[in-house]
Each structure stands twice: as C-alpha cells, then as structure tokens.
C-alpha cells in the first residue's frame, strides 16, 4: 500500500512542519521504496512549497489571533518566541551575516530548525523576501544532502547485515 502511493506520501510528509524533508526522505526511501534521487527531489519541492505562504501570511495570522480566546496565548507565545529568536540570531550574525545564518539554520538538521521556522524568522525580522527564499533554498539543499547521506548510508548498513 505504501509503495503504491510512496511518491505522494513522501511529498505530503515533506510539507509538514517540524518533520519536513528530514522525515520525508528516510520515510520515502525506507518505507515507501521510493528511489533516493526521487525522494530528494519530491521532498525538496514539498518542503519549499509552503515557504512563500509562511513568509507573507504566518506573521499576519499570528498577529490576528494573538488576542482571540483559546488561541490567543499560543499565538502570542509564537510571536514572542519568533521575535526573540530572530533578534538573537540577528545580534549574533549582524546584517551582513543573516543570509548565511538563515542558510545554516535551515540546513543543519536539528530539532526546531528547517524551512518553516527559518522562513517564519525571516518574516518576523522583515528580511528581504528574495534573499530569504534563496537562503532557505540553499539550506534545504544542505539539509537534503545531509539527510540523504545519512539515509543511504544507514539503509545500506542494514541491508548488508
């Protein structure tokens, strides 16, 4: 069943926040039997698809909902966390280093990093859209390379045993 819809499942997983292509590539390759080259391309496309929407709308939605009952506390917390984290990153990287800081933030596959959070941080800091998207694309390429290498190496280690 998974192999029949493997490409589509891999694509959908790559669009999910937190999981993104970090989970989609290994899942696609190991569970859905998608060839790693296809899993990488599909995952990168799926991971990048939400980026413009996050950049232009996520902050507006969070600001809209910060004073609403039930969701207000969470939305305020997201805004505060995003603003604080963005300012901290900006203080360390400076204006000229923001491109590289954003690229590495998205590209190094650690919990809480990725295209979703990187794009939200860029939006919160009012960074240039074009430069931010290029940094996120490069970061997604880096993350895809790291995850693919780990997936293929790990997959081959289990097959040879």
From TrEMBL:
Q: Does the keyword Transmembrane helix apply?
A: yes
- Superkingdom per UniProt: Bacteria
InterPro entries, from UniProt? Sm_multidrug_ex (IPR009577)
Q: Is the Membrane keyword given for this protein?
A: yes
Q: Which key words are in the record?
A: Membrane, Transmembrane, Transmembrane helix
Q: Which Pfam families match?
A: Sm_multidrug_ex
Q: What parts of the sequence cross the membrane?
A: 39-58, 98-121, 133-159
Name-wise, this protein is: Small multidrug export protein
